[in-house]
Amino acid sequence: VVSGKSHGTKNGVIRVQSALYGRKNNKTCSEGRPPREFSNTGCSQNGTGDFVKNRCNGKKVCEISTNDVISPDPCYGTYKYLQTNFTCVPAIHLIACYQSYANLNCDKGRVISVLGAYFGRDNKAVCYASRPPSQVENVYCSNSTQIVAKSCNGRNSCTIKASGSVFGDPCFGTFKYLELSYVCKCK
C-alpha cells in the first residue's frame, strides 16, 4: 500500500519517484529464503516505474499487488519484491461522482497543472449514496486518464464532466467517479 498521508498538509497526494519489481540487493525480503533465491541482484521488471506512476500519482492512497506487475517474470527462480519510492506533495484533490462536474480553479495569474486523474471506482465508500451494493462493489476498475490534463493544463479554470461519454466505460454496471489532483502554478 502506497499511502499519501502527508505531514503538515491535509491535502497531500502521492508523487511516485521510482518503483522496482525484482531484486537489487541480497538483504531485502531474504529472511528464511535459500541463498539461491536472492543471489541475482541485477533483476528488474521493465516498465514498473511507469505502471506505478500511472496507477498512483495524484492519489491520497494507492494499493498495488505484486500480482499486477509479475508478468512476464523478469528473473525466474529469484525471490522478488516491489519497492516504491514516493513523496507527498500538497495539491487540490477533487472527486466528482458520475454525471457531475469537477471544477478546477486557480487564482488570477496562476494556471492548472494536473498531477493525476482516474475514472472508475477503487473505493466502496466514495460516491455510494443511494446506490445498490452491486453498483459499488467492483473496486478494481479505475483507469488512469490523460483527458483531464489535456483539457485543463495551462488554463486558469476548467470544468470537466465525470461521464462515460468523456472517459469511456472501464467497468459496465459499476457507478463510477472521477478522482483528480492538481496544483496551481505561476503562468
UniProtKB/TrEMBL annotation:
Listed PROSITE patterns: SUEL_LECTIN
Keyword Repeat appears in the UniProt entry: yes
Keywords: Lectin, Repeat
GO molecular function, one term: carbohydrate binding
InterPro entries membership: Lectin_gal-bd_dom, Lectin_gal-bd_sf
UniProt keyword annotation of Transcription present: no
Listed name of the protein: SUEL-type lectin domain-containing protein
The SUEL-type lectin domain, residue ranges: 13-89, 96-185
